[in-house]
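Board notes, transcribed. Complex of a protein with flavin-adenine dinucleotide.
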Amino acid sequence: MFQLNENQARIQETARALANDVFKSRAAGIDASEEYPWDNVKVLTQAGFMGMAIPEEHGGLGLSYFDVILVVEEIARVCGVTARIVVEGNMGAIGAITRFGTKKQIERVVPLVLAGDKPAICITEPGSGSAATQMTTTAQKSGDKYILNGTKHWITGGGVSKSHLIFAQVVENDEHLGIGGFIAVRGEDEGLKIGRREPAMGLRGIPETEVIFDNLEIAEDMALIRPENLKRGFAGLMNAYNAQRVGAGTVALGVGCGAYHEALGYVKIREQFSRPIAEFQGLQWMLADMNVSIESARMMLWRAAQSAQTSNTGFPDPLMAAQAKLIASETAVKVTNDALQLHGAAGYSRNLPLERMVRDARMFTIGGGTAQMLRNLIAGKILDMKVPQTRDGYSTSKNS
Ligand code: FAD
């Protein structure tokens, strides 16, 4: 049984109050305008929600990922966009930088995040989505610099984020050393360009764009390299992604939960056949199923978030994070659709938040590892074997 301590109950309550008093009324406008919610960012920053998981010695509040997701869920119930900003202001790129970065790197990025910057994480390319390690962006070592060339796409926050964690194939003296992470700041590092914006289905208040590296010069000391060396660098850096996965799963949960509560209220006031529709058993069972799947997803997310506190990486356990993101994202898709269904035509109208919640929830079985790729990961863990995805993978792997 998960028990919130006094501090956790307090931050959850603060987040709930901000969600209901401030963010809720702004959410439809953000969706319609497709503009980044700078006003909400200001509120998040003032509340101390940006960088709350940054260790105290680096200027943050030193709170846990579990504390962060308590805040994320409350905000996501009313505004998925704003909740995603909290995730990326605490998990993902910033987690990797504070865990693996040098003093200089941390000092460059942390003040930006504490001032409200949502770092962008640049992995996906037009030709390499699920097959992320097949990325073609290169970081060519040249003297005391790396020269980056390539194009990423679907980068959340393209054009609004200042700090960027960019993944690229590192090449030095014609030798391929593996995938490394590089820190760049938009506006400071020349050669980082923002390309086309995707006309996204949901979560429209955050731009999803191409990010283009055109001879982007990164000083050697902005290469984020794991102590084990570059060859194992990507796997190490990707550990940080397990936190982001738990965060993204929690946004999905929150969006689903928001839709569920809308439905719970509506079925009691909407009457058909001279009785509240809540009296129809078929609808009661829908609500019961929605309730159970939300509670299950929350327990798995909480378990995954808490696993970070005892893991030797400082990040959530990869299996628990994948399980939690999978159940939360698929739950959100189903629950938001069912909640819309329970509203009949009213749910299909843009006057209510249901259709927005359906669109917002839809992304979470895709972004940050698709539902299929998460099943691959889970299968590999439970079978305790490598599950290579390339055609020649099994013949070249060491399974047997
Ligand atoms: P593909 O890899 O082309 O997959 C197509 C389909 O094939 C999917 O259903 C997939 O599950 C399936 N598939 C592929 N390979 C396998 C396999 N081996 N086994 C079974 N099924 C398989 N990326 C970033 O780097 N930074 C970001 O900030 C970011 N933000 C995003 C935000 C949004 C809203 C979205 C939608 C995406 C974002 N992404 C981001 C990209 C995201 O990580 C990729 O979309 C995702 O990894 C899938 O890649 P893809 O879209 O190229 O699909």
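The chain has a mean pLDDT of 95. The chain has 13 helices and ten strands.
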